[in-house]
UniProtKB/TrEMBL annotation:
The protein, known as: Uroporphyrinogen-III C-methyltransferase
Domain Sirohaem synthase dimerisation residues, every copy: 148-204
Family from the record: Belongs to the precorrin methyltransferase family.
NCBIfam families listed in its UniProt record: cobA_cysG_Cterm, cysG_Nterm, PRK06136.1, PRK10637.1
Protein's organism: Roseinatronobacter monicus
Active-site residues, Swiss-Prot/TrEMBL: D247, K269
Pathway: Porphyrin-containing compound metabolism; siroheme biosynthesis; precorrin-2 from uroporphyrinogen III: step 1/1; Porphyrin-containing compound metabolism; siroheme biosynthesis; sirohydrochlorin from precorrin-2: step 1/1
């Protein structure tokens, strides 16, 4: 991120625009939404801008240094590169932040596309990379954010002191959520701003008599990494969580979706390195939920697949804390989708095994004869290190060395890699991978072009 978004207070600030034509007018339209003191300097000023006096101070000549004393922002908006550069220099000398319109490199800041529901303002920027995209996002937001939002936020803001009667934390948040999600929009639709104020009084009275909410834990499946593979329910719960306790497999893009105020706790382990001991994870959940927090225990893939879910739910049962599980996309499903294959297929395999290559005692034992049967399909989790062991067992139980194998590393993530192998080449191929990978025994990637062959690995 080259440009850091901030909201600048222009209430007592002076803004100078060099230029009196269309370009200047476009910036003026935005700046007029603020309370800034605005000066326009130009030898020629279009009538549309002239009409804005006295809200805008007009100076009928090019910008001079004396115009810029104390200016916070300076826009060079003449459309003439040489003149804009001169204004930019003067602006810098005066210690102001300068924007040269349509010249990213010469600008200290850029003006984002704006969706205005004052005091709710959404600013959209693409660092100049894709103005078309910014406009598209703006159009989408214009459609989804109701026009009443600004009024609701203004009324809500004026009511904040009253709401402080509720204890800070979950109860106060529940009050505001009920206001913005339901009571506020409903009252506004029925009777405008006046009804909203009445609805707020009523809602506060209701919330003041309610007892403190009880904490609980949601076991939320984060999916294999792509945030779009999360369920709507998972997104919603993550958005509401007070505390998020997550594994290493949960990607930063997904953690970004948590509330900004949420406490985020990582309990993941790196490869075979040390991890937070299981009892400590139980204690963390019990401690936070016990204090009334809404805890999201966020697990990679599907929470119920090789995720020690039962141990955690039993610990919560023991502590009398309610919980629920939100299912999700397990990495085997994601891996199968990315190689364009079905996990089961009529005439090929009527069962599907999900196995882990090692358990707490070491390499895990399996029904090797079943796994080695022709046509069998098995998704092996945590299998990279055990690849040679698995290969040995399968060959011993009669599997063909040319049994197809697909390895999918970082499934659904931008750095996803698909490797096409056979049982014979499995250990060499697995050794190339660094990220989390699922081994799909009995399946070959359908899209050959996406895969890495043994020759490429050897190079
Ligand atoms: N609950 C998870 C599995 C946890 S066990 C799920 O349902 O997917 C950890 C193993 O999952 C890793 O060793 C790897 O085999 C697999 N895994 C998790 N995320 C993955 C991803 N994005 N791509 C490939 N494999 C992944």
């Amino acid at each position: 991120m080259q440009h850091f978004p901030i909201f600048l207070d222009l209430a007592r600030a002076h803004v100078v625009i060099g230029g009196g034509g269309e370009i200047a007018l476009a910036k003026l339209r935005l700046l007029l939404k603020t309370q800034a003191t605005i000066t326009v300097c130009a030898a020629h000023i279009e009538p549309e801008i002239k009409a804005l006096a006295p809200r805008v101070t007009l100076v009928n000549r090019p910008v001079l240094a004396c115009d810029l004393g104390g200016a916070r922002l300076v826009y060079a908006a003449t459309g003439d590169a040489g003149e804009d550069a001169r204004i930019a220099r003067l602006g810098h000398d005066a210690g102001a932040l300068v924007n040269v319109v349509d010249n990213l490199d010469a600008s200290d800041f850029i003006t984002p596309a704006i969706v205005d529901r004052d005091p709710v303002v959404v600013a959209i920027g693409t660092e100049g990379a894709a103005p078309v995209l910014a406009r598209k996002i703006k159009a989408q937001l214009e459609d989804t954010l109701p026009a009443s939002l600004g009024s609701l936020a203004r009324i809500g803001k004026a009511f904040r002191k009253m709401a402080d009667a509720l204890p800070q934390g979950a109860r106060r948040r529940a009050f505001w959520a009920a206001y913005y999600n339901e009571a506020g929009p409903r009252a506004y639709a029925q009777g405008g701003a006046h009804s909203v104020s009445q609805a707020l009084d009523k809602l506060l009275a209701q919330h003041l008599v309610q007892s403190a909410p009880k904490g609980h834990v949601d076991f939320v499946s984060a999916g294999p990494g792509d945030p779009e593979l999360m369920t709507l329910k998972a997104r919603k719960l993550l958005d509401r969580a007070d505390v998020v306790i997550h594994d290493r497999l949960v990607t930063p893009e997904i953690l970004e979706l948590a509330r900004r105020e949420a406490l985020i706790i990582s309990v993941g382990k790196q490869g075979f390195g040390p991890s937070t001991p299981q009892p400590d994870i139980h204690d963390l959940m019990i401690e936070h939920a016990g204090q009334g927090a809404h805890v999201v225990r966020l697990k990679g893939g599907d929470a119920s697949v090789f995720g020690r879910l039962d141990e955690e739910t039993e610990a919560l049962d023991g502590a009398g804390i309610p919980w629920q599980v939100v299912p999700g996309v397990t990495s085997a499903s994601s891996a199968a989708a990315s190689i364009g294959q079905s996990l089961t297929s009529r005439g090929r395999n009527r069962s599907l095994r999900l196995v882990t290559a090692h358990d707490m005692k070491g390499y895990a034992d399996q029904d090797w004869a079943g796994l080695a049967a022709p046509g069998a399909v098995t998704a092996i989790y945590m299998g990279k290190r055990a690849a040679r062991f698995v290969q040995g067992r399968l060959l011993m139980h009669g599997a063909a060395p040319d049994t197809p194998v697909a390895l999918v590393e970082n499934a659904s993530r931008p750095d996803q890699q698909i490797v096409s192998a056979t049982l014979a080449s499995l250990p060499q191929m697995a050794a190339q991978l660094e990220g989390p990978a699922v081994i799909l025994l009995g399946l070959a990637p359908r899209q050959a072009h996406q895969t890495l062959s043994l020759q490429e690995v050897a190079q």
